[in-house]
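A common beginner's mistake is to predict each chain separately and then try to dock the pieces by hand. The better habit, illustrated here, is to supply every component at once so that their relative placement is modeled jointly.
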Amino acid sequence: MVQFIDVFKVYENGTKALKGVSFKLDTGEFAFLVGPSGSGKSTIIKLITGEVAPTDGTVIVNGYNVGNMKLSKMPYLRRSLGVIFQDFRLIKKKNVYDNVAFAMYAIGASSKEVRKRVPYVLQLVGLEDKAKVFPDELSGGEQQRVAIARALVNNPSLIIADEPTGNLDPVRSLEIIMLLNKINELGTTVLVVTHEKALVDAFSRRVIAIDNGKIIGDGLDRYKI
Amino acid sequence: MRRWNTGYYIREGVAGIFTHGLMSFASVCIIIACLIIMGSFILLAVNVDALIEKFEKDNVVLAFIGDALSEQEARALESRIESLPNVEYATFISRDEAFKSFVEGYQDKSIFENLDASILRHRYAVYLRDISQTEQTQRDLLAIDGIVKVNANLTIARGFVTVRNIVSVVTIVLVSILLIVSLFIMSNTIKLATYDRRDEIAIMKMVGATNGFIRWPFVFQGFILGLVGAFSAYIAQWVIYTLVSNFILRSYSFGMVIVLIPFSQVALPLFFIFSAVGFGVGVCGSALAIKNYLRV
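With all components supplied together, the output reads:
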């Protein structure tokens, strides 16, 4: 599903973000990627989504070799992923339904398919009553649920959540992780990037720990950094 | 999954116009302003050209027939004169007609009491096709047996040619500059509108939208804005031209010498020019404007 083989990433300004990172995330797995700020977590996400290419090593995501991909093929990699961000990244001028629907239109779905799928996904995240509401009228937790619905709507095989609880209170954070847990139980691989110790410790899941661009721990363990 | 969803592109394009109303309004206003300036110069050039053409037609060359030829023989020269390459047509004026016309031009008729038409020659009023060839035509006319003198105002002819050339060059240069400036301003305005939506584009890229999918609603939006701007500019140009031409024609000093072509005479070509520029600038402007945001 996701495989990093001895990956190095050096940015143009000389920053060495990753220094020989290797790990594998199998289909159906749920894992936390933890580490302090500047440890290289965001670079791993950017490599998975194809925003940056590795300087050295191999990154394979859902069968695509990210380092050797043509830019024109990038949409097809991204369609196999669902990405959730800390700041939700919803379009403020679209309502909840349209925010989710446009992710389907973006990959060429018909209106009929959209009408069938979007209500189902909104129900899955518990927002079926908020379809016509605009993002600014929702709480942070609800906005993150919309982002999860958008990530889910195209039925991706891998969901990457980049600090999904960063802007939420502890109770809402727990709800979001439980929702991602539920999605994982339905068969989707989930990788959650976070630096919230309490949240990671609350779930007995695989934890990949990174610091200073290197993997320092990988296993069913508690957050030790 | 379909690859092409026209309904979605149109819906998004139209929605984009209203959700970013201020930028859409600014784009349309700039398109209108640029097209009106461009259209005004085109209309000015067309009118100057028409005016010069009118003056050219009024600039008649007179070919005088020698006294040795009778009126009948003089009339027989018409076909030879009209066969000259630069002659549009020639009108015979007998010495009697010339004398009558000459006398009519003076208020005090008594000065002609002791004179008769024999003091004048038969003549032809020769209308030319191309005023710049006046000198050559003058030589051709003098080469015809029977024609003894040709009166052609070469200074005026050369003046008209110079004015026409200057107007043509100035118009081409000005319209070209305005077209480039308009494209630049409009492209930047649309770029500004696109900048406002960069987050939206980034999200689209993240969910796997192809560049085509992202580009089409913007292109459609540019198409609509371009055409709305073009049609509005066309109507405004029509109104402005009608008002200005009415004012000029009503003015005593201008109305006597200037003949302005009616808008209906240029309506269709101007409509196509405005539509083409509006369409081109709207579509190309938006396609170019979002280019930078698609390289992710």
